[in-house]
Specification:
Helices cover about 15% and strands about 35% of the residues. By secondary structure, the protein is α/β, with parallel strands linked by helices. The protein has three domains: about 90 residues, Translation factors (Elongation Factor Tu (Ef-tu), domain 3, Beta Barrel); about 110 residues, Nucleotide-binding domain of ferredoxin-NADP reductase (FNR) module (Rossmann fold, 3-Layer(aba) Sandwich), CATH 3.40.50; about 60 residues, no CATH class.
Length: about 280
Amino acid sequence: MANPVQARAEVLSRITEGPYHRLVLLAPEAAPRVRPGHFATLACADSGMLLRRPFSIHRADPEAGTVELVVAEHGEGTRELVRTRVGERLDLIAPLGTPFPLPDGPVSALLVAGGYGSAPMFALGEEIRRRGGQIGFILGAATADRLYGVEQARALTQDVLVVTEDGSAGLQGRVTDPLAQAIKAIDASVVHACGPMPMLRAVTTIALGLGARCHTAVEEAMACGVGICMTCVLPVVDADGVSRFVRSCTDGPVFDGARVRWGDIGTVPADLEGATAMGGKD
């Protein structure tokens, strides 16, 4: 798990990018600790809502002391956050969770994301390139307006595929449709993915079938973000071969896709360690 700090972070800017809002927060203690794949939580104090809201960290600048989050308005809590004014302060805890593993040397990596799940991918791509590797992107969404970061991806590599379900931008379909071809095209040895669970399951299956490793950042609901409430557990095969529930917020949100039991999410598998005590069958 990361070494998080809690801070009253000043809002330096709030930038509207299509349906999304990018918040640039001054958090000099947190910024140097951030790695691609970490997330942060914000309190929604004015609304009186008890639970904090989790967001993938888009970027962090240790020199400037800033942390950037991409927020989509979904309900009362996020509605409050996207209306925050410059100069106001937000209660931030960051960084949280386990980041994407970084290679020791050059690799060829394919970065796959749906919607604003792409937020952490650009800093990850920069880090892979800094280590001598090459990258490609597949960015998808239901419609063109729900895409995020296409130009950021194109600034890093010419190997960028855009896919929308309605065909309003790029190819028509889902990110998994051109995935196998894209893995082969750049000879990717690893795939990094962030998006909805069904997408991550499909990406993992395709990547593993072609001999590539797959690291997935799950979008699981997190009530506390620090491993206390146990509401974000997933069934995962541990290194010893035993299946256990692990917490997305502390053991993840990035998991080795080969170890996640995607088909059993939302259930208590009978062979899970402790399943009988949880109500599973003998």
